[in-house]
Amino acid sequence: MNDLNSHELLKHLSKQLKARKVNQQITLMEVCGTHTMAIHRSGLNQMLPDNLRLVSGPGCPVCVTGVSYIDTAIDMAKQHGVTLTTFGDMMRVPGSKENLSEIRSQGHAVEVVYSPLGALELAEKNKDKNIVFLAVGFETTTPTIAATVSLAKEKNIKNFYVLPAHKLVMPALEALISDPNLGLNGFILPGHVSTILGSKPYEFIATKHNMACVITGFEAADVIQGIHMLIDQIETGDPKIEIQYKRVAHEEGNAKARALVDEIYEPCDALWRGFGSIPMSGLKLRPAFEAFDALKAFPVTVNDEVENTGCECGAVLQGKIIPPDCALYGQVCTPEYPIGPCMVSSEGTCAAYYKYRTS
Ligand code: SF4
Fold it and tell me: Is the overall model pTM greater than 0.85, yes or no?
């Protein structure tokens, strides 16, 4: 892949893509935030053939997490004195009034960890503190969190909790497909999530909805190949699930990881920024693991309806607009002063557009 990424080869592949004749108007959605970043970093968004449009989807876990989740975590720290632990991306995501970084500067305990295991270690070393891990992520992240909860139970650790905001990709895809206004023809499917899910769960998208799908890797050359495969499917009228990212993703996925998640968690309705509540699109701890549920141990009540004023992340995450369509983009909202999570997260669509803008 290093050879494939050499500057000259990438230039050649990009030119080939740009020159491809596309015989009908095609809109593809890249579902994953890592794809969005790869596309903008490599300038691929400037090298698309005529008639082809790319829109971004809800694949950034931080971005789809609702304002009320941040508010819940903040209230938990303020009202119950818990120590919040989180991946760094969450620190500057705006809640309705403030973010985690701001409450830390007010003296509340917020620690950045690099894995859920880091949060568990903190709990083991600080028995006098209640450690709450902000469990945000898709199918790729959830197995490691499930393994950590399992380990906490095995070790009988009583001061470790998770605040679940896990999201499942499939129900979100169904929500997108059922929106006739989006006019999508195909999906560049997430490579990482698919290493867990495999390709089979996506089959209904092709068979039931006649939409093209390619599970695609994250190098620019992967994305270019994935786009060619999608155009081929659409132009030959043969929608199916193909795997471009064969070096990592396979038809069966990772059954062991799925079984581990299934042991700890069960599906539940979940709130997505922009989408509202999507049935069975999240995960909650099974009754046997409820002792680790932060919301049960440290209850708080927040407003579920609240959104960041003027921010159109919800529409960006559904592919209804692109970031420059938002009136705040680049003027009021920048990575230094973000109004919404799509400008904060390292996988956010607004951040990708802003960081790699050409004018
Ligand atoms: S530019 Fe800022 S305010 Fe607008 S949608 Fe993106 S994150 Fe929200």
Answer: yes
